[in-house]
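sry for the spam today, last one i promise. struct tokens for design, 209 residues
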């Protein structure tokens, strides 16, 4: 549908429909003109444009994400985690602090790597956040992101920035230096790019053995 067309924030994606040209943002506007509660359109628009222009009104990324968590699926932590990165927010008349929003995301799925990674990105270098009765700094948050998402290139890269001689992460009994974390990130990212390239080169119906 109109709300599900995806585009990178740096990509201008256009197509013709019945002689009219649309880009991704135009599709989201079309979806919302038909149904203002179309959650996926709000979510995708928040990633692509800030502020998002809809008719004669501008919506900040935070406002788009509020619309998503209000109208979207109740079991999706991504909206809450991304909203928390925008700071405090009011949702359905309830005021949430940034940390409250992160707790909402973790309550839905406490083992989602992306949420832990988002929290790590949101806090300052010397800041800590209390979650599940424990205080976490950036190193702890990125460590947990890798623990729950060992194939996440972003989590490994972020962990590498906070790995020092005094804080060396260990996974499955193997210690990882700063360089090892970074190399792990590169290898995972390149593997995904290679897989994507192979998929593009394969003829329809073929597979990767």
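last one done:
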């Amino acid at each position: 549908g109109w709300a599900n067309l995806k585009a990178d924030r740096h990509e201008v994606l256009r197509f013709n429909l019945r002689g009219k040209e649309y880009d991704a943002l135009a599709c989201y506007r079309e979806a919302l003109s038909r149904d203002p509660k179309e959650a996926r359109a709000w979510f995708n628009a928040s990633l692509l444009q800030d502020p998002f222009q809809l008719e004669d009104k501008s919506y900040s990324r935070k406002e788009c994400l509020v619309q998503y968590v209000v109208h979207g699926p109740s079991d999706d932590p991504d909206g809450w985690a991304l909203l928390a990165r925008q700071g405090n927010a009011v949702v359905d008349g309830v005021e949430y602090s940034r940390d409250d929003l992160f707790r909402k995301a973790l309550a839905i799925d406490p083992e989602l790597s992306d949420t832990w990674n988002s929290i790590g990105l949101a806090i300052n270098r010397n800041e800590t956040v209390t979650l599940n009765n424990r205080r976490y700094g950036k190193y702890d948050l990125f460590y947990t992101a890798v623990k729950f998402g060992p194939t996440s290139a972003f989590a490994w890269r972020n962990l590498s920035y906070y790995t020092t001689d005094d804080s060396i992460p260990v996974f499955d009994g193997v210690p990882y230096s700063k360089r090892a974390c970074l190399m792990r990130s590169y290898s995972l990212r390149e593997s995904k790019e290679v897989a994507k390239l192979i998929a593009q080169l394969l003829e329809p119906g073929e597979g990767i053995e």
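The longest helix spans residues 178-201. ok im logging off now
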